[in-house]
Amino acid sequence: MAEKEEVKLLSLWALPFGHRVEIALKLKGVPYDYLEQDLRNKSPLLLQMNPVHKQVPVFVHNGRPIAESLVILEYIDETWTQYPILPRDPYDRAMARFWAKFVDEKIVSAGLKSVVKAEKGREAAIEETQQLMKLLEKELVGKDFFGGERVGFLDLVAGSMIPMSLMMLWEGMGVDVIPKEKFPEFHRWMNNLLEVEAVKECLPPREKHIEHMMEYAERYK
Ligand SMILES: N[C@@H](CCC(=O)N[C@@H](CS)C(=O)NCC(=O)O)C(=O)O
């Protein structure tokens, strides 16, 4: 490893894909420079570092860029081995990756439909999201975190996406998609997660965040 590490993160203050990377860096105690981006006016640095997707987050380690948050998390875990976030056991690793994909693909897509198709089938979208959430919630039974006794890969992925993003959107819309009575394990996990210092440090100001998510919803309605 190079003597003087140069670690940069190009992201947005309210971006779940960026929050998961930041939490991982904080858990591992890796210092980094945070570079806020403007997607309406993409910086030459962003276009240079992510010419394929032109999206954030981009992680830059000693000048070498990596895009895609799940790929970034794996790179960070392999590069800074303190506080491992992926499970050691190959089967458990595969399952953590499987459920992370489930969150980013299935839950995000169903969860956003509740907004996008507000007038045309919001109830059906909420129902679909709840069915998916029930499947995910089973992974939490008997555990403090998806990762077991401490926060791991799936906690970062689900945490950044569900409580730290989708729930802000739903709160702004005034709908409780994951009510406590129906999802006790999820709420127990969320409370545990929100007590973790590295997570707390990444929580955007609540009102500003909800407002931002509502603007996002308006654009995608
Ligand atoms: N699969 C990507 C998703 C990243 C993503 O969706 N980034 C959006 C932020 S909302 C973006 O940069 N969009 C700008 C664009 O597509 O022009 C990841 O996990 O990092």
Automatic annotation (TrEMBL):
Gene Ontology CC terms, in alphabetical order: cytosol
Enzyme class: transferase
PROSITE patterns: GST_CTER, GST_NTER
Pfam families xrefs: GST_C, GST_N
Keyword Cytoplasm assigned: yes
Gene Ontology MF terms in the entry: glutathione transferase activity
Coiled-coil ranges from the UniProt annotation: none
Domain GST C-terminal: 89-216
Keyword Methyltransferase listed: no
Reactions this protein catalyses: RX + glutathione = an S-substituted glutathione + a halide anion + H(+)
Protein location: Cytoplasm, Cytosol
GST N-terminal domain segment(s): 5-84
Enzyme Commission identifier(s): 2.5.1.18
Keywords: Cytoplasm, Detoxification, Transferase
Highest taxon above the source species: Eukaryota
Gene3D superfamilies: 1.20.1050.10, Glutaredoxin
Family of the protein in this entry: Belongs to the GST superfamily. Tau family.
Name recorded for this polypeptide: glutathione transferase
Organism: Tarenaya spinosa
Lineage: Eukaryota, Viridiplantae, Streptophyta, Embryophyta, Tracheophyta
